[in-house]
Protein backbone atom coordinates (compact mmCIF):
# COMPACT_ATOMS: atom_id res chain seq x y z
CA UNK A 1 0.00 0.00 0.00
CA UNK A 2 2.98 2.33 0.48
CA UNK A 3 3.36 3.08 -3.25
CA UNK A 4 -0.40 3.53 -3.66
CA UNK A 5 -0.54 5.90 -0.67
CA UNK A 6 2.45 7.88 -1.91
CA UNK A 7 1.18 8.26 -5.47
CA UNK A 8 -2.36 9.23 -4.45
CA UNK A 9 -1.36 11.71 -1.75
CA UNK A 10 1.24 13.39 -3.94
CA UNK A 11 -1.25 13.69 -6.80
CA UNK A 12 -3.82 15.35 -4.53
CA UNK A 13 -1.19 17.48 -2.82
CA UNK A 14 -0.29 19.18 -6.10
CA UNK A 15 -3.65 20.96 -5.85
CA UNK A 16 -3.07 22.24 -2.31
CA UNK A 17 -2.21 25.94 -2.28
CA UNK A 18 -3.30 26.54 -5.87
CA UNK A 19 -6.53 28.18 -4.72
CA UNK A 20 -7.03 29.51 -1.19
CA UNK A 21 -10.85 29.48 -1.53
CA UNK A 22 -10.74 25.83 -2.66
CA UNK A 23 -8.52 24.89 0.28
CA UNK A 24 -10.80 26.70 2.72
CA UNK A 25 -13.90 25.06 1.23
CA UNK A 26 -12.38 21.58 1.58
CA UNK A 27 -11.38 22.33 5.19
CA UNK A 28 -14.97 23.41 5.79
CA UNK A 29 -16.30 20.18 4.24
CA UNK A 30 -14.00 18.08 6.40
CA UNK A 31 -15.39 19.72 9.55
CA UNK A 32 -19.03 20.41 8.64
CA UNK A 33 -21.28 17.72 10.08
CA UNK A 34 -24.08 19.08 7.89
CA UNK A 35 -22.33 17.67 4.80
CA UNK A 36 -20.87 14.46 6.25
CA UNK A 37 -23.17 11.85 7.79
CA UNK A 38 -26.27 14.06 8.04
CA UNK A 39 -27.55 13.69 4.44
CA UNK A 40 -27.40 9.88 4.57
CA UNK A 41 -29.05 9.77 7.99
CA UNK A 42 -31.86 12.04 6.76
CA UNK A 43 -32.49 9.61 3.90
CA UNK A 44 -32.65 6.76 6.43
CA UNK A 45 -35.24 8.73 8.40
CA UNK A 46 -37.23 9.17 5.19
CA UNK A 47 -37.25 5.40 4.66
CA UNK A 48 -38.32 4.93 8.29
CA UNK A 49 -41.49 6.97 7.72
CA UNK A 50 -42.37 5.60 4.28
CA UNK A 51 -45.89 4.45 3.44
CA UNK A 52 -47.14 1.49 5.50
CA UNK A 53 -46.77 -1.24 2.87
CA UNK A 54 -42.97 -0.77 2.86
CA UNK A 55 -42.65 0.20 6.51
CA UNK A 56 -42.13 -3.11 8.31
CA UNK A 57 -39.32 -4.33 6.07
CA UNK A 58 -37.61 -0.94 5.98
CA UNK A 59 -37.70 -0.59 9.74
CA UNK A 60 -36.16 -4.02 10.33
CA UNK A 61 -33.38 -3.12 7.89
CA UNK A 62 -32.81 0.31 9.45
CA UNK A 63 -32.68 -1.00 13.03
CA UNK A 64 -30.29 -3.80 12.08
CA UNK A 65 -28.27 -1.34 9.99
CA UNK A 66 -27.97 1.28 12.73
CA UNK A 67 -26.82 -1.47 15.07
CA UNK A 68 -24.17 -2.34 12.50
CA UNK A 69 -23.14 1.32 12.23
CA UNK A 70 -22.60 1.46 15.99
CA UNK A 71 -20.57 -1.77 15.81
CA UNK A 72 -18.50 -0.29 12.95
CA UNK A 73 -17.62 2.82 14.95
CA UNK A 74 -16.78 0.82 18.06
CA UNK A 75 -14.65 -1.60 16.04
CA UNK A 76 -12.81 1.24 14.30
CA UNK A 77 -11.93 2.82 17.66
CA UNK A 78 -10.81 -0.50 19.13
CA UNK A 79 -8.62 -1.23 16.09
CA UNK A 80 -7.05 2.24 16.30
CA UNK A 81 -5.98 1.42 19.85
CA UNK A 82 -4.78 -2.17 19.42
CA UNK A 83 -3.05 -1.83 16.04
CA UNK A 84 0.42 -0.26 15.88
CA UNK A 85 0.16 3.54 16.02
CA UNK A 86 0.20 5.06 12.54
CA UNK A 87 1.28 8.67 12.20
CA UNK A 88 -0.99 10.75 9.97
CA UNK A 89 0.45 12.04 6.67
CA UNK A 90 0.35 15.69 7.77
CA UNK A 91 2.54 14.77 10.77
CA UNK A 92 5.09 12.89 8.62
CA UNK A 93 7.80 15.35 7.46
CA UNK A 94 9.41 12.70 5.24
CA UNK A 95 6.40 12.83 2.92
CA UNK A 96 6.97 16.55 2.25
CA UNK A 97 3.26 17.29 1.98
CA UNK A 98 2.02 20.87 1.82
CA UNK A 99 -0.95 21.89 3.96
CA UNK A 100 -3.51 24.63 3.26
CA UNK A 101 -2.41 27.95 4.74
CA UNK A 102 -5.31 28.06 7.20
CA UNK A 103 -4.83 24.50 8.49
CA UNK A 104 -2.60 24.00 11.56
CA UNK A 105 -0.19 21.07 11.33
CA UNK A 106 -1.04 19.89 14.85
CA UNK A 107 -4.57 18.93 13.72
CA UNK A 108 -5.50 15.51 15.21
CA UNK A 109 -2.02 15.15 16.67
CA UNK A 110 -1.85 12.04 18.87
CA UNK A 111 -4.67 10.23 17.04
CA UNK A 112 -3.72 7.13 15.08
CA UNK A 113 -4.49 7.29 11.37
CA UNK A 114 -5.54 3.64 10.91
CA UNK A 115 -8.37 2.88 10.32
CA UNK A 116 -10.41 5.93 9.37
CA UNK A 117 -13.51 6.09 11.58
CA UNK A 118 -15.06 8.58 9.12
CA UNK A 119 -14.76 5.98 6.37
CA UNK A 120 -16.03 3.25 8.71
CA UNK A 121 -19.24 5.08 9.61
CA UNK A 122 -19.88 6.55 6.16
CA UNK A 123 -19.52 3.20 4.39
CA UNK A 124 -21.59 1.52 7.07
CA UNK A 125 -24.38 3.96 6.17
CA UNK A 126 -23.75 3.36 2.46
CA UNK A 127 -24.24 -0.37 3.03
CA UNK A 128 -27.50 0.19 4.93
CA UNK A 129 -28.84 2.33 2.09
CA UNK A 130 -27.89 -0.34 -0.46
CA UNK A 131 -30.03 -2.79 1.50
CA UNK A 132 -32.92 -0.32 1.27
CA UNK A 133 -32.48 0.90 -2.31
CA UNK A 134 -29.80 0.37 -4.96
CA UNK A 135 -30.36 3.90 -6.31
CA UNK A 136 -29.96 5.54 -2.90
CA UNK A 137 -27.02 3.26 -2.17
CA UNK A 138 -25.20 4.50 -5.28
CA UNK A 139 -25.93 8.10 -4.29
CA UNK A 140 -24.60 7.41 -0.79
CA UNK A 141 -21.45 5.83 -2.25
CA UNK A 142 -20.82 8.98 -4.29
CA UNK A 143 -21.52 11.17 -1.27
CA UNK A 144 -19.19 9.20 1.02
CA UNK A 145 -16.36 9.31 -1.51
CA UNK A 146 -16.64 12.97 -2.56
CA UNK A 147 -17.78 14.71 0.63
CA UNK A 148 -16.19 12.55 3.35
CA UNK A 149 -13.21 10.50 2.17
CA UNK A 150 -11.70 12.67 -0.57
CA UNK A 151 -11.38 15.81 1.62
CA UNK A 152 -9.59 13.81 4.30
CA UNK A 153 -7.04 12.54 1.80
CA UNK A 154 -6.68 16.01 0.22
CA UNK A 155 -5.90 17.52 3.64
CA UNK A 156 -3.42 14.70 4.45
CA UNK A 157 -5.50 13.65 7.45
CA UNK A 158 -5.45 10.04 6.26
CA UNK A 159 -3.53 7.76 3.97
CA UNK A 160 -5.78 6.31 1.25
CA UNK A 161 -5.20 2.86 2.76
CA UNK A 162 -6.61 4.15 6.08
CA UNK A 163 -9.78 5.12 4.25
CA UNK A 164 -9.97 1.76 2.46
CA UNK A 165 -9.50 -0.05 5.76
CA UNK A 166 -12.23 2.02 7.39
CA UNK A 167 -14.58 1.42 4.46
CA UNK A 168 -13.96 -2.33 4.77
CA UNK A 169 -14.66 -2.24 8.52
CA UNK A 170 -17.93 -0.35 8.00
CA UNK A 171 -19.14 -2.50 5.12
CA UNK A 172 -18.34 -5.79 6.84
CA UNK A 173 -19.80 -4.70 10.19
CA UNK A 174 -23.15 -3.83 8.62
CA UNK A 175 -23.12 -6.83 6.28
CA UNK A 176 -22.59 -9.27 9.15
CA UNK A 177 -25.03 -7.47 11.44
CA UNK A 178 -27.70 -7.53 8.73
CA UNK A 179 -27.41 -11.31 8.43
CA UNK A 180 -27.69 -11.73 12.20
CA UNK A 181 -30.15 -9.02 13.19
CA UNK A 182 -32.80 -8.62 10.46
CA UNK A 183 -36.07 -10.08 11.79
CA UNK A 184 -34.23 -11.07 14.96
CA UNK A 185 -35.44 -10.80 18.54
CA UNK A 186 -33.47 -7.57 18.79
CA UNK A 187 -35.28 -5.75 15.97
CA UNK A 188 -38.66 -7.20 17.00
CA UNK A 189 -38.03 -5.98 20.56
CA UNK A 190 -37.23 -2.47 19.31
CA UNK A 191 -40.28 -2.36 17.04
CA UNK A 192 -42.50 -3.52 19.87
CA UNK A 193 -41.05 -0.72 22.01
CA UNK A 194 -41.77 1.78 19.21
CA UNK A 195 -45.43 0.76 19.40
CA UNK A 196 -45.85 0.31 23.14
CA UNK A 197 -43.46 2.99 24.46
CA UNK A 198 -42.92 5.49 21.63
CA UNK A 199 -41.63 8.23 23.96
CA UNK A 200 -38.79 6.00 25.16
CA UNK A 201 -38.05 4.58 21.70
CA UNK A 202 -37.94 7.89 19.84
CA UNK A 203 -35.89 9.57 22.56
CA UNK A 204 -33.23 6.91 22.06
CA UNK A 205 -33.66 6.98 18.27
CA UNK A 206 -33.18 10.76 18.06
CA UNK A 207 -30.19 10.60 20.42
CA UNK A 208 -28.50 7.89 18.33
CA UNK A 209 -29.13 9.72 15.05
CA UNK A 210 -27.81 12.99 16.50
CA UNK A 211 -24.66 11.26 17.77
CA UNK A 212 -24.07 9.68 14.37
CA UNK A 213 -24.53 13.07 12.69
CA UNK A 214 -21.69 14.34 14.89
CA UNK A 215 -19.57 11.20 14.54
CA UNK A 216 -19.90 10.41 18.26
CA UNK A 217 -17.36 13.23 18.76
CA UNK A 218 -18.07 13.82 22.45
CA UNK A 219 -17.90 10.11 23.25
CA UNK A 220 -14.75 9.56 21.17
CA UNK A 221 -12.91 12.53 22.63
CA UNK A 222 -13.94 11.60 26.16
CA UNK A 223 -12.75 8.03 25.67
CA UNK A 224 -9.49 9.26 24.12
CA UNK A 225 -8.82 11.56 27.10
CA UNK A 226 -9.71 8.79 29.55
CA UNK A 227 -7.32 6.31 27.90
CA UNK A 228 -4.60 8.98 27.79
CA UNK A 229 -5.11 9.60 31.52
CA UNK A 230 -5.00 5.88 32.34
CA UNK A 231 -1.75 5.43 30.41
CA UNK A 232 -0.12 8.56 31.88
Automatic annotation (TrEMBL):
Q: Which Gene3D superfamilies match?
A: Phosphatidic acid phosphatase type 2/haloperoxidase
Q: Which residues form the Phosphatidic acid phosphatase type 2/haloperoxidase domain?
A: 61-178
UniProt KW keywords: Membrane, Transmembrane, Transmembrane helix
Q: Which InterPro entries match?
A: PAP2/HPO, PAP2/HPO_sf
Specify the superkingdom: Bacteria
Transmembrane segment boundaries:
25-49, 61-80, 113-132, 139-157, 163-182, 198-216
Q: Name one Pfam family in it.
A: PAP2
Query: Mind telling me what this protein is named?
Result: Phosphatidic acid phosphatase type 2/haloperoxidase domain-containing protein
To which species is this protein native? Rhodoferax lacus
Amino acid sequence: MHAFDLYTLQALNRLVGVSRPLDDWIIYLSNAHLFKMTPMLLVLCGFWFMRPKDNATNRHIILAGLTGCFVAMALARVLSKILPFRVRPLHSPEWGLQLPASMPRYTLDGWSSLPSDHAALSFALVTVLFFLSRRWGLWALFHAFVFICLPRAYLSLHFPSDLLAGALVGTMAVGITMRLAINSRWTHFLLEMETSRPAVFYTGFVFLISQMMHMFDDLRQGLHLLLTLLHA
